[in-house]
Amino acid sequence: MKHRPPAEVAVPASTTDAAATLAALEHACEAPDLPANLRSLLERSRDVLRATAAASEAERQRYRALFDTIPDPVSVIAWDGTVLDLNQAGMAAYRRPRDDVVGQPIEVLNPDLPKDHMRPVWDALSRGENFKIEVSNMRADGTRFPVEVHSTNFDYEGQPCVLAVARDLSERAEAELRYRELMEIVDRGIMVRDLDGRVLYANAAALRLLDVEGGVTLDQVLRDGRWLVVDENGHVLREDEFPWFQAMRTGRMVGSTVLGYYNQRLRQLTWLSVTAVPQFAAGSDKPTQVLSLFSDVTALKRNSNLFGRVQGLAHIGGWEWDTGRDSLYLTDESQRILGHRSPPETIEALLGCLREGDRRLLRVALDEAIAIGRHIDLELQGTRDDGHAFWARVIGEAEAGDPLSSRLTGTLQDITQRKQSEETLRVQARSDPLTGLLNRDALLGELDARLDDPTQSSLAVLYIDLDRFKVVNDVLGHAAGDRLLASAARRIQRAIGSEGLIARFGGDEFLVVCHTGDDPARPQRLADAILEVFGDSFRMDGEEFSITASIGVAQAPADGERSQTLIQSADVAMYDSKRRGRNGWQVFTQELAEQQLHRLQLENQLRHAISNDEFHLVYQPQVDLRSGAPVAAEALIRWRNRSLGEMRPDHFIGHAETTGDIVGIGGWVLLEACRQVRQWRDRGLQLDRVAVNVSYRQFLGEDLASSVRAALAESQLPGSALELEFTERVLIEDVPDTLRTFAELRDMGVMLTIDDFGEGYSALNYLRRLPIHGLKLSQLFVQGVPDNHSDVAVCQAVVGIARSLGLGMVAEGVETQRQRDFLLDLGVTIGQGFLFAPGLLPAELEQRYRRAATITP
């Protein structure tokens, strides 16, 4: 680079030439034959040169004095890197005499410099900038020490050079080392982040607290989803809510903040107290990085929580009343005991939580405590915001040592459970031994007593029946069933609290009697509370069961003036709730009473229908949709009762399912259908098969494969003569038993079909695994084709499923020619419905079949 930086410091030129000139002038002036005028000129020149040399020497001496007084090592370096001069501090630092360095390349002081190391120096100096670099210099004994070198332009004896000042960093390096060692051994976590949140440094304590294993960076651990960070209230924090982010954004320190770090891999919660301090670069008004300090406060947090938990377990809270300002302070546990969304902040507000008589008692006690310092110790009853009653023991007194103190302090203890227990003790001799609740006789006595008392006769009865309790009892045994009943009783107690009497009425049935005079909506509210506590599953012997409740509600005197009548009304309402789908409550009405009477008559008649020979079967042909020729038939049950008349299946099958009578009815249908097929075949009618519907209760309640085998054997029919139609519900009841039973039936040659496919559970996973032959397309979808786009789409989907699984397809409910054409276009060739025939008596079907046989070529 052809450039001469401007000289910032000038030093005198060499005096070698000036001395030789002066010596020559001195010699010339001493010549004897010089003309006078020439001698005078030479003497004047000599004197000027003497003065100039003296001044130059003085300037050189000043330069050297200044050069050698600089405390840092200073060297003058030529263009090519040759050392031209070195001050005394440099000689001392490098432990070399000046003559060992001057004239040598700069590498003698710094052997680690790269090739062309002078190029960036001159490049910076040519732009009028200084050049700074940190390197290691070498002493005469070979030892190294860190330096920070500052270089600038310098004129040395008229030539552009570099003035390099080296500042020894050894003390700074030692200080940094000690600082780094301190950060590594301190027990608090230390972390430094940049503007983008990347971790620049973390000490050993930080790595340990944040579970960083070898081979993984802290950045990876913090970003891989291992840690879930929450505040003290359990709220999950976003990144912009972290202390380090806030410190970076505001430029202010964020003081000790307690955060929970939940390790999702170890399922372990660690509480850390975090302080974030912003750090600024020199001259900057915005942070360039944030230093975070954090320490493990899990033990402290646990101790604090434990103290609060102990208070909670003991149900004891604290209170303080500033009588001068009428300011009331309540601890969290006191607020929980009172159960108000907006805790009382004055004594009047607290008194408003209590019942009238207890309100007066506390008011008098507070006045006496203020006036004469009398101690307060009362048991009081009140009502929470949710309507539940509570009992609390209030203890208080004026502050000790100051009889004129304006402050009262004390405790508030929840004694609701004790009061409820005292109430229960009155009838303990008549309690149910399994649940500890009132037994049937005790509740009837209490109920009659209240109905006889005009002040208590406004009441309601809740009749509670557990849904699916029989499943647990049958699967796990009676011991587990007893434990479930006891657990259910505890849940009901939790829901009712002190607002009513609770009894186990028998088996898995419970009764609640509650007063309605002061709260007409109480029965419905309590019913909702009971359903809510049954929302969580029960765990028994390692198994989880969902047990819900069906509840009936009856109120006196409208629904009964005596206990038996009132309970019977609640029972009717409960039964209707269960019929509507369970897990709900129903209030008794007169319409329900009439329905119940009709239901009882129906069920009573239904129970004797088989023995009275009241059932008969009709058969609806399944035809080839192309030709209309019958290929099979579906057996459909009909019931003709002497008292009730002709009953459609949809009027009695549901009742039979509920009572369990469907198992016997299904068995009769199976035997009768096989008998009829045998009779037809003996008469030369070769119907391919007859289809029989099988209830899911029939499937679960007996050995179906054995029943089918016996029916086929009795009628001397092959399995191919029988088709069994199941609803989708059967598919998901019990997978192992279902697979086993289906396999046995298929081995017999029985054809297996899923009826009304798509209406119910659509258990495609089980459909793929079960050895079935076909699907029946429900009339629910067939009736809407071809005009209803949704029904068309469902039919196409079901046919597609059947085709992809290699299953047969039968459409039911075919009533119009357009439906028939649509199904044929879809590829469905077998169907049944009123377009072809309704359910026919056996003789009618035989006649229809023979007529079709004579018409078909």
TrEMBL record:
SMART domains: EAL (SM00052), GGDEF (SM00267), PAC (SM00086), PAS (SM00091). Signal peptide: none annotated. Residues 131-181, 376-427 form the PAC domain. Residues 457-590 form the GGDEF domain. InterPro entries: Biofilm_reg_signaling, EAL_dom, EAL_sf, GGDEF_dom, Nucleotide_cyclase, PAC, PAS, PAS-assoc_C. PROSITE patterns: EAL (PS50883), GGDEF (PS50887), PAC (PS50113), PAS (PS50112). Residues 599-853 form the EAL domain. Residues 59-128, 175-210 form the PAS domain. CDD domains: EAL (cd01948), GGDEF (cd01949), PAS (cd00130). This is EAL domain-containing protein. The lineage of its organism: Bacteria, Pseudomonadati, Pseudomonadota, Gammaproteobacteria, Lysobacterales.
